[in-house]
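Worked Example 4.2. Read the sequence first, then its structure tokens.
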Amino acid sequence: MSRVFIALQANEDSRCIVEAIVDDNPEAIVNRQPAMVKIDVPGRLVIRRASIEERLGRHFDLQEVHIHLISLSGHVDETEDEMTLSWDR
């Protein structure tokens, strides 16, 4: 199965995003580096707005992920509530 990934800046603002992704994607493999965090997942990775809001304690517009985004792989499907990366269409 192909892997998808997302790489985010390693900073305090993206910490809650990374925690939410890891909790919502149990097969996630996290690679922490000094300036970024790369998360690989087989097949499909889901980022849920509600999961991030739970950790932040405030409203979160899912478009804010793009502020911290370095790179990603996979087909992107976005709604107001979820961002999904996958190779299967």
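Now turn to a second chain, presented in exactly the same format:
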Amino acid sequence: MGERALRGTRLGATSYENDRNTDLAPRQEVSYICPKGHRFDVPLAAEAEIPATWECRMCGVTALRVDGELPEAKKSKPPRTHWDMLLERRTIEDLEEVLNERLAILRAQRRKSA
């Protein structure tokens, strides 16, 4: 049955749907320009929030909206380093004590091997 219904057509080659009697959503064109000078337009829905940046279609660099301003940088905490986490657990005096203990052990091992 399926074979007879598709006789004379190629799958995926053409669409038998048309755009008659359909209303497209209202759209707006937003222009972007990248640091390398590429300018392009992006169609967006009229009620969509317009992003300040968009990836350039030509080179992949972040492009800025033509009539827009640079987006504000988000405030972020600096990454915690190993040293920061160590200082949360121990004081400098404790660390110096541990260092002296480890140095004494290493010196004792050197004396035995020499």
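Notes for the reader: The radius of gyration is 33 Å. Helices lie at 2-5, 82-89, 92-113.
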